Amino acid sequence: MSDFPAARLHVVSGKGGTGKTTVAAALALALAAGGRKVLLMEVEGRQGLAQLFDSPPLPYEERKVAVAPGGGDVYALAVDAEQALLDYLHMFYKLSPNGLPARTLRKIGAIDFATTIAPGIRDVLLTGKVKEVTTRAGSRGGRYYDAVVVDAAPTGRMPRFLNITHEVGNLAKVGPLKAQSDGVMAVFKSPQTVVHLVTLLEEMPVQETVEAIEELTALGLPVGGVVVNMVRAPFLSHEDVAAVAAGTAARRLSAGLKTAGVDPALAPVLLQEASEHAARVALEERGHDALAHLQRPTYELPLLPDAVDLGGLYQLAAALKAQGMA
User: Fold this and answer.
1) For the sheet containing 193-199, what is the strand order?
2) What is the pLDDT of residue 251?
3) d(CA 209, CA 15)
């Protein structure tokens, strides 16, 4: 049973380097397991999803990239701001995406012009596409996609990316743009949306996660779970870590080396490595404590020995499924 049974839109964010794209992809696979249809969206223009799924660069169209356990399908879409602008013009002004006016807009770089004079419009267009696919009706009733996962902006930009009402307030008080932003915010603030944060057990990512949750909560945006990524199993027991921290491990280590028939001269080098390991374990424990105070569902993903490939994604998806995130 999922911890978020009412959620259909899963927005995934995290500080740069925490692996949020990998987590978003694994979550999409986990949600699709058992025969569901899931869309995985990228809005930052980095084509990170294509690399993970060993696929050519994703076009501005929904393309099937993986089959989940149990026969579910994962589709992927790289959202392009220029194409999203043309979608907007087609939706509200009946301007054909392939017509002469649209081609002219592409030629003159309309989206660059629009985002220069009104920087907030880019996020309005991107989130508008997120809302469209989330609420799109299926041919037999219900929704076209069972779930949508968004590999979203990093935590530093996340509140602004999701809180587009403020941006639109500076652009339009009435009209289609205002109506679209109101529709987007209605979806984002509804029970069908959750914002998940990806972090590492390091000081800066944990602190950014704490701050992001505080800011999202203040804006009335629904926070979901916290995914602790790249977790490493400790090499030493808690007793050994405590001994290293207390400075009482040197004698035990020397005695152990003698018993094992290993040159005791190696003791200082090994003790230094043990000290560094103990310091890392202590740092991670402080991170665990800080995340526990958030009182949010927390999930852990292991550090994979090699670069994440499709097999690794399935492994991470299984871990998220087993822990109840999907």
Assistant:
1) 63-67, 73-78, 37-42, 147-151, 9-14, 193-199, 223-231, 298-302
2) 72
3) 8
Count the Cβ atoms, other than its own, within 10 Å of residue 35.
12
- Distance, CA of 56 to CA of 38 (rounded, Å): 20
Helix, strand, coil share of the chain (percent; to 5): 50, 15, 35
Separation of first and last alpha carbons in the chain: 7
Q: How far apart are CA 27 and CA 325, in angstroms?
A: 8
User: Whole-angstrom Cα distance, residue 1 to residue 303?
Assistant: 25
From residue 158, alpha-carbon distances to 117, 220, 250 in Å are: 21, 13, 47
Would the pLDDT of 181 be above 70? yes
Burial of 287 (0-12, 13-18, 19+ CB in 10 A): buried
Given a contact cutoff of 8 angstroms between Cβ atoms, the answer to whether 28 and 74 are in contact is yes
Confidence tier at 244 by pLDDT (50, 70, 90): low
Q: What is the pTM of this model?
A: 0.85
Report the pLDDT value the prediction gives residue 107, as an integer from 0 to 100. Answer: 60
User: Is the backbone of residue 94 left (phi > 0), alpha (psi -120 to 50) or beta?
Assistant: left
Q: What is the 3-state secondary structure (H, E, C) of 218-270?
A: HCCCCEEEEEEEEECCCCCCHHHHHHHHHCCHHHHHHHHHHHHCCCHHHHHHH
| pLDDT single digits (tens) 107-141 | 655 556 555 545 567 777 788 889 999 999 988 78
